[in-house]
Specification:
- The protein is an alpha/beta fold and about 140 residues long.
- The protein is built from five helices and five strands, in the order βαβαβαβαβα.
- It has one domain: 3-Layer(aba) Sandwich (Rossmann fold), CATH 3.40.50.
- Strands 2-1-3-4-5 form a five-stranded parallel beta sheet.
Length: about 140
């Protein structure tokens, strides 16, 4: 089994930070990123390769880190579409946002998010979060 974390975030700095944190702690995961919910859905629903990445396959455990606030299709709409797609309704989705507003947290869970994590402001905290996410959502599936 392979593990893959897919990050959907329009902020390239946040993507680089997560990728760096994963590399620094040496987790055995692949990492894909998409700057919008539309591109994630194109990749996941149609199983069409995005750029040089492989398509979705049944031999890989996927987890989505989803930002809420993005232009065009925000994380809420993306989450809603994922949950309405039968094949991906059980895909673990962790909201990964700078918003700590109670309403955002509540609405995310009501829409089917598996977890809600506030983006930390330093790399050490991010490493701890990525390690926890991996061990809770992916490692146990082996």
């Amino acid at each position: 089994m392979n593990d893959c974390i897919i990050m959907v975030d329009d902020d390239p700095e946040d993507v680089v930070l997560v990728k760096t944190a994963l590399k620094r702690i040496g987790l055995p995961v692949s990492f894909l990123s998409f700057p919008s919910g539309e591109l994630l859905l194109d990749f996941i629903v149609s199983q069409t390769p995005y750029s040089h990445h492989e398509s979705v396959d049944e031999q890989t455990n996927y987890l989505v880190l989803l930002d809420l606030n993005m232009p065009k299709m925000d994380g809420r709409l993306c989450l809603s579409k994922l949950r309405k797609t039968q094949s991906f309704s059980q895909l673990p989705v962790v909201i990964f946002s700078t918003s700590d507003a109670h309403e955002d947290v509540k609405k995310s869970y009501e829409m089917g998010a598996n977890s809600y994590i506030y983006k930390p402001d330093n790399i050490r905290e991010l490493e701890k979060i990525m390690n926890s996410i991996y061990h809770f959502w992916l490692f146990k599936k082996h």
